[in-house]
Write a structure and sequence with these properties.
Order of helices and strands: EEEHEHEHEHHHHEHEHH
Distance between the termini: 30 Å
Number of strands: 8
Oligomer: single chain
Number of domains: 1
Number of helices: 10
Structural class: alpha/beta
Radius of gyration: 17 Å
CATH class: Alpha Beta
Length: 272
Protein backbone atom coordinates (compact mmCIF):
# COMPACT_ATOMS: atom_id res chain seq x y z
CA UNK A 1 0.00 0.00 0.00
CA UNK A 2 1.05 3.58 -0.60
CA UNK A 3 0.23 7.12 0.43
CA UNK A 4 1.59 10.50 -0.63
CA UNK A 5 3.23 12.96 1.75
CA UNK A 6 2.59 16.74 1.59
CA UNK A 7 5.77 17.20 -0.48
CA UNK A 8 4.58 14.68 -3.09
CA UNK A 9 6.72 11.70 -2.03
CA UNK A 10 5.01 8.32 -2.40
CA UNK A 11 5.73 6.11 0.60
CA UNK A 12 5.02 2.42 1.01
CA UNK A 13 3.60 0.80 4.11
CA UNK A 14 2.23 -2.57 5.17
CA UNK A 15 -0.87 -3.03 7.31
CA UNK A 16 -1.86 -6.30 8.98
CA UNK A 17 -4.41 -7.41 11.55
CA UNK A 18 -6.98 -5.62 13.64
CA UNK A 19 -7.01 -4.10 17.11
CA UNK A 20 -4.95 -1.45 18.84
CA UNK A 21 -2.42 -0.15 16.30
CA UNK A 22 1.33 -0.61 16.48
CA UNK A 23 3.44 1.38 14.02
CA UNK A 24 6.94 0.00 13.37
CA UNK A 25 9.61 2.46 12.24
CA UNK A 26 12.64 0.79 10.70
CA UNK A 27 16.33 1.43 11.07
CA UNK A 28 18.29 3.38 8.50
CA UNK A 29 19.13 1.11 5.55
CA UNK A 30 16.41 -1.39 6.49
CA UNK A 31 12.73 -1.41 5.57
CA UNK A 32 9.46 -2.93 6.80
CA UNK A 33 10.84 -6.41 6.04
CA UNK A 34 13.07 -6.13 9.12
CA UNK A 35 10.01 -6.70 11.35
CA UNK A 36 9.43 -10.23 10.05
CA UNK A 37 9.63 -11.71 13.56
CA UNK A 38 7.56 -9.03 15.28
CA UNK A 39 4.53 -8.39 13.04
CA UNK A 40 3.12 -11.98 12.96
CA UNK A 41 3.69 -12.31 16.72
CA UNK A 42 1.61 -9.24 17.54
CA UNK A 43 -1.06 -9.76 14.87
CA UNK A 44 -1.69 -13.20 16.33
CA UNK A 45 -2.18 -11.54 19.71
CA UNK A 46 -4.82 -9.12 18.57
CA UNK A 47 -2.89 -6.06 17.40
CA UNK A 48 -2.96 -4.14 14.14
CA UNK A 49 0.62 -3.86 12.86
CA UNK A 50 1.69 -1.16 10.40
CA UNK A 51 5.24 -0.83 9.07
CA UNK A 52 6.56 2.11 7.08
CA UNK A 53 9.24 2.13 4.41
CA UNK A 54 11.16 5.37 4.94
CA UNK A 55 11.74 7.45 1.79
CA UNK A 56 14.69 6.01 -0.12
CA UNK A 57 14.08 2.62 1.50
CA UNK A 58 12.14 -0.48 0.51
CA UNK A 59 9.36 0.23 -1.95
CA UNK A 60 9.10 3.96 -1.28
CA UNK A 61 10.12 6.77 -3.62
CA UNK A 62 13.76 7.87 -3.74
CA UNK A 63 13.68 11.68 -3.75
CA UNK A 64 16.83 13.75 -3.43
CA UNK A 65 15.77 15.35 -0.16
CA UNK A 66 13.99 14.62 3.10
CA UNK A 67 16.48 12.35 4.87
CA UNK A 68 16.69 14.52 7.98
CA UNK A 69 14.98 13.48 11.20
CA UNK A 70 12.37 16.21 11.08
CA UNK A 71 11.15 15.11 7.65
CA UNK A 72 11.19 11.50 8.81
CA UNK A 73 9.03 12.50 11.78
CA UNK A 74 6.68 14.42 9.49
CA UNK A 75 6.40 11.43 7.14
CA UNK A 76 5.48 9.28 10.14
CA UNK A 77 2.86 11.86 11.16
CA UNK A 78 1.47 11.84 7.61
CA UNK A 79 1.04 8.05 7.75
CA UNK A 80 -0.69 8.17 11.14
CA UNK A 81 -3.02 10.89 9.90
CA UNK A 82 -3.63 9.12 6.57
CA UNK A 83 -4.85 6.05 8.46
CA UNK A 84 -6.45 8.17 11.21
CA UNK A 85 -4.74 6.08 13.88
CA UNK A 86 -5.40 6.62 17.60
CA UNK A 87 -3.87 5.14 20.74
CA UNK A 88 -0.80 4.13 18.73
CA UNK A 89 2.20 2.23 20.04
CA UNK A 90 5.25 3.52 18.17
CA UNK A 91 8.13 1.05 17.89
CA UNK A 92 11.32 2.54 16.48
CA UNK A 93 14.67 0.84 15.89
CA UNK A 94 17.96 2.74 15.58
CA UNK A 95 17.28 5.81 13.39
CA UNK A 96 13.62 4.87 13.64
CA UNK A 97 13.83 5.44 17.37
CA UNK A 98 15.27 8.90 16.75
CA UNK A 99 12.40 9.63 14.36
CA UNK A 100 9.89 8.52 16.99
CA UNK A 101 11.45 10.98 19.44
CA UNK A 102 11.24 13.76 16.84
CA UNK A 103 7.63 12.86 16.08
CA UNK A 104 6.72 13.46 19.73
CA UNK A 105 8.69 16.72 19.80
CA UNK A 106 7.08 18.04 16.60
CA UNK A 107 3.58 16.54 16.63
CA UNK A 108 2.83 15.81 20.28
CA UNK A 109 1.30 12.68 21.77
CA UNK A 110 -2.43 13.16 21.15
CA UNK A 111 -2.52 10.06 18.93
CA UNK A 112 0.14 8.09 20.84
CA UNK A 113 -0.42 5.66 23.71
CA UNK A 114 3.18 4.58 24.28
CA UNK A 115 6.58 4.30 22.58
CA UNK A 116 9.32 1.70 22.35
CA UNK A 117 12.89 2.78 21.56
CA UNK A 118 14.95 -0.23 20.46
CA UNK A 119 18.68 0.20 19.86
CA UNK A 120 17.82 3.86 19.32
CA UNK A 121 20.30 6.47 18.10
CA UNK A 122 19.62 8.76 21.06
CA UNK A 123 20.25 11.15 22.73
CA UNK A 124 23.30 12.65 20.88
CA UNK A 125 26.08 10.56 19.39
CA UNK A 126 28.80 13.00 18.37
CA UNK A 127 31.26 14.10 21.02
CA UNK A 128 31.37 17.88 21.49
CA UNK A 129 32.51 20.25 24.21
CA UNK A 130 29.09 20.04 25.86
CA UNK A 131 28.66 16.34 25.03
CA UNK A 132 31.87 14.73 26.28
CA UNK A 133 30.13 11.35 26.64
CA UNK A 134 29.66 11.09 22.87
CA UNK A 135 31.63 9.16 20.29
CA UNK A 136 34.76 11.04 19.17
CA UNK A 137 34.11 12.83 15.91
CA UNK A 138 37.23 11.41 14.27
CA UNK A 139 35.86 7.88 14.70
CA UNK A 140 32.44 8.78 13.33
CA UNK A 141 33.90 10.64 10.37
CA UNK A 142 36.31 7.81 9.56
CA UNK A 143 33.44 5.31 9.54
CA UNK A 144 31.35 7.58 7.29
CA UNK A 145 34.29 7.99 4.92
CA UNK A 146 34.70 4.20 4.72
CA UNK A 147 30.98 3.88 4.01
CA UNK A 148 31.28 6.38 1.16
CA UNK A 149 34.38 4.69 -0.26
CA UNK A 150 32.96 1.14 -0.46
CA UNK A 151 29.45 0.68 0.89
CA UNK A 152 29.20 -3.09 0.23
CA UNK A 153 32.54 -3.69 1.96
CA UNK A 154 31.52 -1.52 4.93
CA UNK A 155 28.25 -3.39 5.31
CA UNK A 156 29.86 -6.81 4.96
CA UNK A 157 32.38 -5.92 7.66
CA UNK A 158 29.61 -4.76 10.00
CA UNK A 159 27.35 -7.76 9.41
CA UNK A 160 28.66 -10.07 12.14
CA UNK A 161 28.98 -7.23 14.65
CA UNK A 162 25.41 -6.15 13.92
CA UNK A 163 24.11 -9.37 15.49
CA UNK A 164 27.11 -9.91 17.84
CA UNK A 165 27.42 -13.49 16.66
CA UNK A 166 30.96 -13.56 18.07
CA UNK A 167 29.31 -13.63 21.50
CA UNK A 168 27.34 -16.78 20.71
CA UNK A 169 24.12 -15.33 19.35
CA UNK A 170 22.47 -17.86 17.06
CA UNK A 171 21.87 -15.99 13.82
CA UNK A 172 22.22 -18.00 10.63
CA UNK A 173 24.46 -16.95 7.73
CA UNK A 174 21.32 -16.86 5.59
CA UNK A 175 19.67 -14.38 7.96
CA UNK A 176 22.79 -12.21 7.96
CA UNK A 177 22.85 -12.30 4.15
CA UNK A 178 19.16 -11.39 3.98
CA UNK A 179 19.73 -8.35 6.21
CA UNK A 180 22.76 -7.32 4.16
CA UNK A 181 20.73 -7.51 0.94
CA UNK A 182 18.06 -5.26 2.45
CA UNK A 183 20.73 -2.68 3.23
CA UNK A 184 22.27 -2.88 -0.24
CA UNK A 185 18.86 -2.38 -1.85
CA UNK A 186 18.48 1.01 -0.14
CA UNK A 187 19.23 4.17 -2.09
CA UNK A 188 22.96 4.95 -1.65
CA UNK A 189 22.08 8.64 -1.51
CA UNK A 190 19.57 7.98 1.29
CA UNK A 191 22.16 5.96 3.21
CA UNK A 192 24.70 8.78 3.06
CA UNK A 193 22.23 11.41 4.19
CA UNK A 194 20.59 9.35 6.92
CA UNK A 195 23.87 8.27 8.49
CA UNK A 196 25.10 11.84 8.69
CA UNK A 197 21.87 13.28 10.01
CA UNK A 198 21.31 10.74 12.75
CA UNK A 199 24.77 11.04 14.37
CA UNK A 200 24.66 14.83 14.51
CA UNK A 201 21.19 15.43 15.95
CA UNK A 202 20.93 16.48 19.60
CA UNK A 203 17.75 15.24 21.31
CA UNK A 204 18.78 16.03 24.88
CA UNK A 205 16.48 19.03 25.31
CA UNK A 206 13.31 17.30 24.08
CA UNK A 207 13.56 13.80 25.57
CA UNK A 208 12.61 14.99 29.09
CA UNK A 209 9.36 16.32 27.59
CA UNK A 210 8.14 12.82 26.64
CA UNK A 211 5.14 12.03 28.83
CA UNK A 212 3.73 8.83 27.31
CA UNK A 213 4.90 5.49 28.73
CA UNK A 214 8.25 4.61 27.19
CA UNK A 215 10.23 1.39 27.02
CA UNK A 216 13.92 1.41 26.08
CA UNK A 217 15.57 -1.79 24.86
CA UNK A 218 19.26 -2.00 24.05
CA UNK A 219 22.07 -4.53 23.86
CA UNK A 220 25.20 -4.10 25.94
CA UNK A 221 27.29 -5.27 22.95
CA UNK A 222 25.79 -2.80 20.48
CA UNK A 223 28.64 -1.75 18.19
CA UNK A 224 26.55 0.68 16.12
CA UNK A 225 25.03 2.56 19.07
CA UNK A 226 27.20 1.95 22.16
CA UNK A 227 24.91 1.53 25.14
CA UNK A 228 26.80 3.89 27.45
CA UNK A 229 26.51 6.67 24.84
CA UNK A 230 22.89 5.99 23.92
CA UNK A 231 20.35 3.97 25.92
CA UNK A 232 21.71 4.47 29.43
CA UNK A 233 21.70 8.22 28.94
CA UNK A 234 18.30 8.18 27.25
CA UNK A 235 16.79 6.26 30.17
CA UNK A 236 17.93 9.01 32.54
CA UNK A 237 16.38 11.73 30.38
CA UNK A 238 12.88 10.26 29.83
CA UNK A 239 10.76 10.38 32.99
CA UNK A 240 9.65 6.95 34.20
CA UNK A 241 11.10 5.03 31.27
CA UNK A 242 11.14 1.22 31.50
CA UNK A 243 14.66 0.08 30.71
CA UNK A 244 15.82 -3.33 29.45
CA UNK A 245 19.48 -3.97 28.70
CA UNK A 246 20.21 -7.31 27.04
CA UNK A 247 23.56 -8.97 27.79
CA UNK A 248 25.56 -9.95 24.68
CA UNK A 249 23.02 -8.35 22.33
CA UNK A 250 24.16 -6.27 19.38
CA UNK A 251 22.28 -3.73 17.29
CA UNK A 252 20.17 -6.40 15.59
CA UNK A 253 18.44 -7.65 18.73
CA UNK A 254 15.10 -7.70 16.91
CA UNK A 255 16.45 -10.91 15.33
CA UNK A 256 19.08 -12.28 17.71
CA UNK A 257 16.93 -11.73 20.84
CA UNK A 258 13.52 -11.70 19.18
CA UNK A 259 11.77 -13.91 21.75
CA UNK A 260 12.85 -11.77 24.68
CA UNK A 261 12.19 -8.54 22.77
CA UNK A 262 8.72 -9.65 21.69
CA UNK A 263 7.79 -10.82 25.18
CA UNK A 264 9.12 -7.66 26.83
CA UNK A 265 7.13 -5.57 24.36
CA UNK A 266 4.02 -7.68 24.95
CA UNK A 267 4.38 -7.24 28.72
CA UNK A 268 4.81 -3.49 28.24
CA UNK A 269 1.62 -3.34 26.17
CA UNK A 270 -0.27 -5.37 28.75
CA UNK A 271 0.91 -3.26 31.67
CA UNK A 272 -0.37 0.01 30.25
Amino acid sequence: MFFTTPDGTRLAYEDYGQGQPMVFVASSMLCSDMWEYQIPFFVERGHRCIALDRRGHGRSDRPSNGYDLDTGADDLAALIEHLDLREVTLVGHSMGGAEVARYLARHGDARIARVVLASAMLPFLRQTDDNPEGVPGALLDASLAELDADRPKWLARQAQAFFATHLGNDVSPAQIDFTLRQCLATSPWAVRQCQRNVVDFDHRATLPEIRVPTMIVHGDADFSAPVDVTARRTAKLIPGAVYHEYPAAGHGLFVSHRDRFNNDLLAFLSAQ
